[in-house]
Amino acid sequence: MEWVAAAIAFVSAVAALWQALEARRARRSAQSAALDAGSHEARAAAAAERMAAVLEEQNQRERENRNRYENPWTITTESYNSGIAVSYRLGGTEAITDVKVGKTVERERVESRDAIPNPMRPGQSFTMTWSQTYASVRQLDLVVSWTRPNGERHEFPFTLP
Fold this sequence. Notes:
The chain has 161 residues and is an alpha+beta fold. It has 1 helix and 7 strands. A hairpin with a 2-residue loop joins strand 1 and strand 2.
């Protein structure tokens, strides 16, 4: 019977050793999982920061585009016997004031066919004529300037062919 007690003691020792090894493996697995979770958490936080930076940059670009003022003019040109007629039609949504047309070459004859309305509302237009002669320049640069309701002054250069 002594051999039975020794066998039972041996089996108990093997079972205790097995349990100790399993506990050690479980502890290492838990530590590894905790490290992986921390690593995943750090990567997720870094990705969230990158996404936030990209979204902020996109919002900044949208704000800049929203604040940028678009040219409201639609310009059509028409040739006639001795020159070119240029029609300026105001688009957009706001009325403007103090509309002026300037030219770069003083000796050229650029005249307004009709009075420029002041204030000028969207949809209104005016026509300028350029009477060309043999001594005329090949191209004429005009500059349309106007004032927005908020007081900002704007210019739009335009070249007549």
